[in-house]
């Protein structure tokens, strides 16, 4: 079994002939907190496509540089950093028709490089707003569009395919993109309780695959978010009959999500959360080797070497030929031995050398006892001699 993280990159299946951006493996980087607010900024000057620009550079004398009639809508700086901009090409049905986070939307999308080179054209693209199903520039700007609106989006590479770019269709690393988007429809997300089991399994797998894309690109926080959404789907109650086989399939998706989430949490140094994910996975499948392996790694990172070694030995017993587990266990045994040696040396330094101290004490006592014996013998002799001398003096006087 390969332990280079359980993040397969299988493409999402097309459903009912519809194209999903999940199939393309795109991704985006985490925004800095100063780059974006919790909610999209208000668009006072974008409703209906007739607002005025707030850019100081555009405040020119109308007599000397008038705007010609029919000029296209001014750019809206979505994030305030000039790296994600939106311009209305055709107005939509009003602000009240804008889609909300959590809704499913359908769009037409034309993607080009900044120099005008066409990357691809897609029709009837479906995704869920706010779930991270598409790259960040698209997810953010579609929320600001009105139903029926056509807009032009210009985005920096950090909000599109990032430093890795994309292989097919070809997008260079950090490439700035121009997107032509038409919002066709928005619908509420399906009621999970009423979803057929096979549809629920497919939807959860789709979100998990998206999390795998985030993981492979190093966007571990977004990966955790996608796995969390997939878990919510697998754990949702159901009002539809489900067969034992479908229950097993749904549970398999759930355990895979927990395993992959634990791997992402490890990358983020969220050890307590990773341990909780491993424990949850093992609660459903006690002999899941990947869950045991990652749990052993988490425990080792938390300094619980004894418990970590026990967990890894259990995994190794289930799969004795696994070299990755062998290597991790050997490294852990060596590290534990070194730590115990260091602790013993520290204790000796704190308490001194008990053997040497006891030996010195015994020698001192022996020496003291020998000295005491000589003193007693000398004193007794002196008393005896004194007694004899006294007797002689008394006899002489008589």
Explain this structure to me?
The chain has two domains: 143 residues, Roll (Chitinase A, domain 3); 156 residues, Tetratricopeptide repeat domain (Serine Threonine Protein Phosphatase 5, Tetratricopeptide repeat, Alpha Horseshoe). It is 45% helix and 12% strand. The chain has a seven-stranded mixed sheet with strand order 1-5-4-7-6-3-2, covered by helices on one side. It starts with 18 loop residues before the first strand and ends with a helix. Pfam families: FKBP_C, TPR_19. It is an enzyme of class 5 (isomerase). Its EC number is 5.2.1.8.
Question: What order do the helices and strands come in, and which of them pair?
Answer:
Layout: E1 19-20, E2 76-77, E3 84-90, E4 104-113, E5 118-128, H1 136-142, E6 150-155, E7 177-187, H2 197-216, H3 220-235, H4 244-267, H5 271-284, H6 289-301, H7 305-318, H8 323-351, H9 354-397
Helix pairs in contact: 2-3, 2-4, 3-4, 4-5, 4-6, 5-6, 6-7, 7-8
CATH fold name of the largest domain? Serine Threonine Protein Phosphatase 5, Tetratricopeptide repeat
* Annotated CATH architecture of the largest domain: Alpha Horseshoe
> Can you tell me the CATH class of the largest domain?
Mainly Alpha
Low-confidence stretches: 9-72
Q: Kindly estimate the percentage of residues that lie in beta strands according to DSSP.
A: 5-15%
Please tell me the total number of domains: 2
Number of helices: 9
Q: Would you report the number of β strands?
A: 7
The biggest sheet amounts to: 7 strands, mixed
User: What spatial order of strands do you see in the largest sheet?
Assistant: 1-5-4-7-6-3-2
Secondary-structure element order, as H and E? EEEEEHEEHHHHHHHH
By CATH, the superfamily of the largest domain comes out as: Tetratricopeptide repeat domain
Into which percent range does the helicity of residues fall? 40-55%
Q: What would you call the shape? A: elongated
EC number: 5.2.1.8
Pfam family, one: FKBP_C
Keywords: Isomerase, Membrane, Repeat, Rotamase, TPR repeat, Transmembrane, Transmembrane helix
GO cellular component, one term: endomembrane system
